Backbone:
């Protein structure tokens, strides 16, 4: 543990084995876990409020959860686990509210092929997760000749009908958030960071990077009140991009689209033509072990279907995995907050096959990095999902005590090699 919340800390620097207050290591780690889950919930709650959606229960839990992590408030290991599960329940609620707001505002996503690569003309590149910000930008760019590109998880915007209708929404540049310093340097466009996952810029594009709302970088230019005129002016003064050879990536598999295929899916499962579903996704990191996810998906039997979401999908979403009698083998559900789509789909499949969640032929393989991932993990645990695999490495704050809790209570496992894990899962 490491706790430096108060002035009683050992030698005035921090308690590392046991707190002066009596706080045990596991308690400290579970408090950290609660804080990270609360951060994730807050991110989704922030975007929901942008779209006019609020909920008193969510706000109440954020207050209670934060208060529980103060010095000398909660020393009970079992209660902190219960609060972790409660954070999962609240995160489920806020993801549902946010998804409903997105659909009310932008329509339900439908599958679409997104052009990947530069097109001729001036451009703006948008990264982050904020769809409202993108919509306001598209309104102001329409008719200007500026092409608006998405980056990282903003690719899901192309699937929403009320965003895809804008002619200036041109395509995608780059992949996950971690390539931004390379991509932002490569393409001479104005850049907008709308939410988390924005890195401190390199000098070669710092003067082209704008942020908004609570997103800030040192000496950065901030858009206020959705007035994108400074961003648009910067895009116009830059040299036009040269066209390059384009590829495509398919995204936009909304819940209704997938459920419309339910009778066919049931038929294929009962005929043994679909053996298993995999949800493979989560946060992406620069760690070399992240190559596991591409290898895993590539080596899965051809009678399996892969659901994916969040930035981890960029490890393999360019693969052509074909289909099973018209059912695509790779289904991109959207951003990290679209985990609610995967959850609603799993619930629907339970009804379709008349079984419990853990009886479904569904395996969840998650990568864990950022705070929002902690919230989503606890949502799955709240729903009672067991036997999940995680990797490639756990966060530094997860010690053996917490890992033992997750293993003992939920049979959480760690990934090994693609070959070994596939063999174990498929029997």
Residues:
């Amino acid at each position: 543990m490491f706790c430096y919340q108060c002035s009683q800390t050992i030698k005035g620097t921090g308690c590392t084995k046991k707190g002066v207050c009596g706080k045990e290591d596991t308690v400290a780690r579970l408090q950290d876990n609660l804080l990270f889950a609360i951060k994730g919930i807050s991110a989704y709650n922030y975007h929901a409020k942008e779209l006019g959606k609020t909920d008193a229960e969510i706000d109440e839990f954020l207050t209670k959860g934060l208060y529980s992590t103060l010095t000398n408030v909660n020393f009970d290991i079992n209660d902190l686990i219960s609060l972790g599960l409660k954070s999962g329940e609240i995160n489920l609620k806020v993801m549902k509210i946010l998804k409903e707001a997105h659909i009310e505002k932008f329509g339900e996503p439908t599958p679409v092929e997104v052009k990947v690569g530069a097109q001729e003309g001036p451009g703006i590149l948008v990264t982050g997760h904020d769809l409202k910000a993108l919509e306001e930008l598209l309104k102001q760019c329409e008719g200007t000749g500026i092409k608006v590109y998405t980056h990282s998880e903003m690719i899901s915007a192309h699937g929403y009908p009320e965003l895809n209708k804008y002619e200036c929404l041109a395509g995608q540049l780059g992949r996950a958030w971690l390539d931004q310093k390379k991509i932002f340097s490569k393409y001479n466009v104005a850049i907008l960071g709308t939410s988390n996952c924005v890195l401190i810029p390199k000098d070669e594009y710092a003067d082209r990077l704008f942020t908004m709302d609570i997103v800030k970088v040192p000496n950065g230019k901030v858009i206020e009140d959705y007035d994108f005129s400074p961003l648009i002016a910067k895009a116009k003064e830059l040299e036009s991009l040269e066209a390059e050879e384009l590829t495509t990536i398919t995204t936009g598999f909304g819940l209704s689209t997938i459920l419309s295929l339910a009778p066919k899916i049931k038929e294929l499962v009962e005929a043994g033509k679909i053996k298993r579903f995999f949800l493979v996704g989560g946060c992406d990191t620069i760690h070399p072990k992240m190559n596991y996810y591409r290898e895993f998906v590539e080596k899965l039997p051809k009678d399996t279907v892969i659901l994916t979401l969040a930035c981890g999908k960029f490890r393999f979403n360019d693969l052509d995995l074909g289909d099973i009698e018209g059912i695509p083998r790779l289904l991109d559900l959207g951003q990290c907050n679209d985990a609610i789509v995967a959850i609603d789909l799993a619930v629907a499949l339970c009804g379709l096959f008349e079984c419990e969640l853990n009886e479904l032929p569904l395996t969840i393989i998650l990568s864990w990095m950022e705070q929002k991932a902690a919230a989503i993990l606890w949502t799955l645990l709240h729903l009672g999902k067991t036997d999940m695999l995680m990797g490639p490495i756990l966060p530094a704050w997860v010690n053996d005590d917490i890992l033992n809790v997750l293993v003992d209570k939920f049979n959480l496992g760690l990934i090994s090699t693609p070959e070994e894990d596939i063999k174990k899962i498929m029997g």
Q: What stands out?
A: The chain has a mean pLDDT of 95. The chain has 15 helices and 16 strands. The two ends are 39 Å apart (CA to CA). The first strand starts at residue 112 and ends at 116.
